[in-house]
Amino acid sequence: MSKFDVIYKDIVKKIHEDGIWSTGNVRTKYIDGVPAHYKSYIGYQFRLDNSTEEAHLLTTRFCPNKAPIRELYWIWIMQSNNVDELNKIGCKFWNEWKFQDGTIGPAYGAQLSKKTFGYESQLHYIVNEIKKNPNSRRIMTEIWIPEDLDKMALTPCVHLTQWSVIGDKLYLEVRQRSCDVALGLVANVYQYSVLHKLVALECGLVPADIIWNIHNVHIYDRHIDNLLEQVNRETHPGAKIKIDNFNSIFDFKPDDIIIEDYKYGEKISYEIAI
Predict the structure, then answer these.
(1) Using CB atoms within 10 A as the burial measure, which of 31, 162, 232, 253 is most buried?
(2) pTM of this prediction?
(3) In terms of C-beta density within 10 A (0-12 exposed, 13-18 middle, 19 or more buried), how is residue 138 classed?
(4) 91 among known catalytic residues
(5) Homologous superfamily of 3-208+221-251 in CATH?
(6) Where are the domains of the chain?
(7) 169-197 as b/e, with b when 16 or more CB fall inside 10 Å?
(8) What is the mean pLDDT, run by run of 10 residues, along the chain of 274 residues?
């Protein structure tokens, strides 16, 4: 089975056994307008070895692996907040949150594009600090910006990264304020494992562990039965990931990511909560 299958099953089990159901009014709703209640667990951390060719995709069901990389490219490389631009490269993740001006407000890529310590963007900052000052304990990105939160279509879920170099190894820590296990977690872990590999390649390092911290990890009420069935399915060996034609992270394109030998169980469609 894939490494992520094991971690994912533990998360679902922890929420099912020890989580607490939401009560009262909730912000999230389904497309039909019904409030999307959820069972949540507060404060969860896991570590994922990202040093091999294994792609961190679940095998108990099919996980989209093209759209998440297109979203990663839109946020980190294009550093865009324009949903129309995201649609043009084949990803519809943000359509439900698009403002009339075509954007999601000053969120995600718009925050990463800001100059940081004299560098062109937050991505330029972390790459150059890793190369020039690898002992720094300040190699971080942050997109939870208080003065802009009320202008965002959705406040950031994954909002902070921190990077550390030990010898020839690059470690990545991710902080997520809120995480939908059925949909968000699956895409986010895969995305950031790819980002980790790209930054490591750029800096001539070996990707080591990803340390993932979630404050509120939850399962929506309409997802829980299918998730419990899913994590008890037969698993398969993890797929392999290859990064083709790498010259620089700043020249990276979504089609440079190639997934091989991906075997998975029957597809499950999980309803999105908005």
Answers:
(1) 162
(2) 0.97
(3) exposed
(4) no
(5) Thymidylate synthase/dCMP hydroxymethylase domain (3.30.572.10)
(6) 3-208+221-251
(7) ebbbbbbbebbbbbbbbbbbbbbbbbbbb
(8) 93 98 96 97 98 97 97 98 97 95 98 97 98 98 98 98 98 98 98 98 98 98 98 96 96 97 96 94
